[in-house]
Specification:
This protein is 28% helix and 24% strand. A 10-stranded mixed beta sheet has the order 5-2-1-11-10-9-23-24-25-26. Helix 4 packs parallel to helix 7 and helix 6 packs parallel to helix 9. Bound molecules: fe (ii) ion. Fe (ii) ion binds next to loops.
Length: 580
C-alpha cells in the first residue's frame, strides 16, 4: 500500500484497519494517545518530511556579528515530542544570495533538550554589509535568509521598522508580509507580545486561525508548541527571512500584565507556581527566538543596546521581567519615591548608556520598550497603571536625567496598546509644555485588535485629543507598523497600516507621518498630500520589486527539492562551491 503522511490519508487508513467508524473529532482525540499511530510514524521516515518547517531567522545584529536561528523538525515530531538522537546540520554565511561567496560555515547538532532549535552567534563579519545564510540538514536546504550588520561609521541614512502585538489567532500576519516586502530596512524591532499565551478561541472564531495548543500556554511543552505555531506561519517566515529582528518581550510571552513576581493572568492555585511558569516561558523564548541570551531563565537580562555609528544609539528595555514591581492599587504606594519599573541594575545601565551616547556626540538616542511612557488620562488621574503611569517616580527619575544631562535627540518607541500614537514627553504636560524632553511613537499591532468598530475608534480618538494636550495624533482602528527614516538632520516616522487581517489578501497605505529634529523634539505632521505621496511611492516600489528577483524567492522546499538522504561532507562542500 502506498503510504502518504497527509492527515486525510492517515484517517482513512485508520478507519480501514480498525473497522470502527470514528468522527474526525473522535479520531483526533483518540490519535493523540494512540501508540499504534506513534509507532507507525516513527518507523516510516517519509520522503515528504521537510526539516525546516519553521523557517530561518536572524537577530541581534552587531558591527561584526549576528544570531542565526532555525529548527530541525524531527521526523517523529508533531504527535509527541519524544526524545531522539541528536540531529546534525550545516550552516553557511555568504555575501551573495546564491551562497557562492562563502565567508563562514560550520556544522553542529541539536537535541530534544532545546526542542531541536538551532542558534549560532556568528562573529568576524564586516560592519554595514548585507549577508545571506542558509542551513542544510537531512539532505535538504533551508530557505536563504538575509541580514545586515550594524554600521560602524555613521551612515547617511537609517531605516528601521518597529511593531508589536502579533496574536496568531487574531488574524493573518499581513503586517509581517508588508515588512518582508521592504528591501531597504536595516533591521526590524519587535517590541513584545510576539506570541500570546491565551487560548484566544473567540478570536479564532472570527479569523479561522487556531492556536496550537488550543488551551492557554502554561508549561514548557505548551510554550514550545505555541512558538512553533507562530514560526510555522508563512508571513512570519517571510519577514524573518528578509530582515534581522531585534526583539524584546512584553507580558504575553509569559502571561497578561506580568511583572517580576506574578501576572494578572496567573493563578497559583490552578496554574502552578509562578516562578516555574516564568522559567518555562523564558526557556521557550530563548530556544525559539533569534536573540542573544543574557542571564538565565531564572533571572533573564534581556535589556541591551545597539550603536549605529554616530547616527543612532538604541536601547532595548525590559519593563516586564527584569525589575518591575507589583501593581499598586493605592495612591501613596504607587507614588513611593523608590518605586521602580526597570529595576536598579537596568536603570543604572540605561542612565550610563544615555549619558555616554550624548558625550560621544551620537545624534539620536532611542529607547525600544513596551508600555506607554507619556501621561495617559486626566490630569492626576491616569487610566492605566500597567503603563509608566503606575510607576511615576521611575518616570520622574528618567525625565530628570534627560533634562539634567541635556540629552538631545531623545525618543521612545512603544508597543503594547494596539493603536497608533505620537506624543511629546514632558514632566507634566497638563501644566507646562514649553520645553518637551523628547517624543514617544507608538506602533499599532500586527493583529491584536484596538477598537474594531471604525466609528467608535474615530470617536475615541477625537475624545482623547481634547483630554491629552501632549497628543499629536492617535488612531485606534488600524493594524500596522512604523517605519523610521533617520538622518543627521531629522527623524521621519511613518505609520503604515493594512486594511484587513481577516484575509491574506490585503493592501497597505501610509496613515500618518511626521518629522522631528534632534535639538527640538516638537513633532510636525506631514500634510495629507505628502502622506499620499509616500503611499504612491511605496506602491510604485512594490510594482518594481515584483520584477526584481534579487532576493525574492519561493520557499526552498519547492525550489530545491532534493529528496531524503544526507549529503556527505565532500558533497556538501561541492554543493557550496557550485552554488545552488
Ligand atoms: Fe498586546
Amino acid at each position: 500500500m502506498r503510504v502518504a503522511l497527509t492527515g486525510e490519508a492517515v484517517i482513512k487508513m485508520t478507519f480501514r484497519e480498525s473497522g470502527m467508524p470514528l468522527s474526525r473529532r473522535e479520531f483526533l482525540i483518540d490519535s493523540l494517545a494512540s501508540s499504534t499511530l506513534l509507532n507507525w510514524r516513527a518507523q516510516r521516515p517519509s520522503r515528504s518530511h521537510y526539516p525546516f518547517q519553521h523557517g530561518v531567522a536572524s537577530g541581534d545584529p552587531l558591527h561584526d556579528g549576528i544570531i542565526l536561528w532555525t529548527r530541525i523538525t524531527p521526523i517523529n515530531d508533531g504527535l509527541s515530542r519524544v526524545a531522539s538522537t541528536p540531529l546534525s546540520y550545516h550552516w553557511v554565511v555568504a555575501t551573495d544570495a546564491a551562497l557562492t561567496q562563502v565567508v563562514a560555515n560550520g556544522e553542529s547538532h541539536t537535541t530534544a533538550e532545546r526542542d531541536f532549535t538551532v542558534k549560532h552567534d556568528i562573529r568576524a563579519l564586516l560592519p554595514g554589509r548585507d549577508y545571506y545564510y542558509a542551513f542544510y540538514a537531512q539532505g535538504q536546504w533551508s530557505d536563504t535568509g538575509h541580514f545586515k550588520t550594524l554600521p560602524e561609521v555613521s551612515p547617511e541614512r537609517l531605516r528601521l521598522a518597529f511593531t508589536s502585538c502579533s496574536n496568531f489567532a487574531a488574524g493573518y500576519f499581513n503586517v509581517y508580509r508588508d515588512i518582508a516586502e521592504r528591501r531597504d530596512l536595516d533591521a526590524v524591532l519587535h517590541l513584545g507580545d510576539y506570541i500570546y499565551e491565551y487560548a484566544s478561541l473567540d478570536e479564532s472564531l472570527v479569523s479561522g486561525r487556531v492556536h496550537e495548543p488550543m488551551a492557554e500556554a502554561v508549561t514548557l511543552a505548551d510554550y514550545r508548541a505555541r512558538h512553533a505555531c507562530y514560526k510555522a506561519d508563512r508571513d512570519s517566515q517571510a519577514m524573518h527571512r528578509q530582515h534581522a529582528l531585534i526583539a524584546i518581550w512584553d507580558d504575553h510571552e509569559v502571561a497578561n500584565n506580568a511583572w517580576q513576581g506574578g501576572a494578572a493572568n496567573h493563578q497559583d492555585a490552578t496554574q502552578g507556581v509562578w516562578s516555574e511558569r516564568l522559567q518555562a516561558a523564558v526557556q521557550a523564548y530563548y530556544e525559539w527566538m533569534p536573540v542573544r541570551e543574557s542571564g538565565n531563565a531564572d533571572a533573564p537580562e534581556m535589556y541591551r543596546g545597539y550603536r549605529f555609528g554616530q547616527l543612532l544609539d538604541l536601547s532595548m528595555l525590559d519593563t516586564r521581567l527584569a525589575g518591575r514591581e507589583a501593581p499598586e492599587a493605592d495612591y501613596v504606594s504607587r507614588h513611593a519615591p523608590e518605586r521602580t519599573l526597570l529595576g536598579e541594575a537596568q536603570e543604572n545601565w540605561l542612565s550610563e548608556r544615555l549619558v555616554q551616547a550624548q558625550d560621544e556626540g551620537v545624534t539620536w538616542k532611542l529607547l525600544g520598550q513596551q508600555v506607554m511612557m507619556a501621561q495617559f488620562g486626566f490630569h492626576q488621574q491616569p487610566f492605566n497603571y500597567d503603563q509608566w503611569d503606575g510607576y511615576p517616580a521611575a518616570r520622574q527619575r528618567l525625565f530628570d536625567l534627560v533634562e539634567q544631562q541635556g540629552i538631545t535627540g531623545w525618543g521612545v518607541l512603544t508597543g503594547d496598546i494596539h493603536s497608533s500614537w505620537a506624543m511629546t514627553l514632558h514632566h507634566d504636560p497638563f501644566v507646562d509644555r514649553s520645553s518637551p524632553l523628547g517624543f514617544e511613537l507608538v506602533t499599532p499591532a500586527v493583529t491584536s485588535e484596538g477598537i474594531g468598530n471604525a466609528a467608535t475608534a474615530t470617536l475615541a480618538a477625537a475624545s482623547l485629543s481634547s483630554v491629552l494636550p501632549h497628543l499629536n495624533f492617535v488612531d485606534f482602528y488600524y493594524r500596522g507598523y512604523v517605519v523610521l527614516d533617520i538622518t543627521e538632520q531629522r527623524l521621519q516616522a511613518e505609520w503604515w497600516v493594512v486594511d484587513t487581517v481577516l484575509s491574506p489578501r490585503y493592501s497597505s497605505a501610509c496613515l500618518r507621518a511626521l518629522t522631528t529634529q534632534p535639538l527640538s523634539p516638537e513633532l510636525v505632521l506631514l500634510s495629507d498630500a505628502e502622506v499620499a505621496e509616500l503611499t504612491n511611492h511605496r506602491h510604485q516600489e512594490l510594482a518594481n520589486n515584483h520584477g526584481d528577483h534579487k532576493f525574492s524567492q519561493p520557499l526552498a522546499f519547492l525550489r530545491d527539492w532534493r529528496g531524503a538522504g544526507a549529503l556527505t561532507q565532500s558533497e556538501f562542500s561541492s554543493a557550496l562551491i557550485s552554488g545552488r
